Amino acid sequence: MDGLGEVQCPSCFEFFTVAVPPAGECPTELDYDCEVCCRPMIISVDGGGGVLARGLDDSLSG
Ligand SMILES: [Zn+2]
To answer: How far is the centre of ligand 1, averaged over its atoms, from the C-alpha of 6 (Å)?
Structure first.
């Protein structure tokens, strides 16, 4: 791992790269704005440095 992870924007579905926190700080969640469409999202980081983005709207509807 080089401290970077690729995520797919839940709003525009474009892929982009984000900085992943050190393993000692994972799992965690990051607030992030898409670099393509600038919509806010939550990026979940698991203990292995894997990243998954979800839209804020999704988290409210569940
Ligand atoms: Zn986007």
So the answer is: 13
Mean pLDDT, rounded, for 29-42? 94
Strand 51-55 with 40-45, pairing: antiparallel
> CB neighbours of 44 closer than 8 A, spacing ≥ 6?
27, 28, 29, 51, 52, 53, 54
For residue 56, the CA-to-ligand 1 centroid distance in Å is 12
Q: What is the pLDDT of residue 56?
A: 86
C-alpha of residue 28 to centroid of ligand 1, in Å: 21
pTM (2 decimals)? 0.81
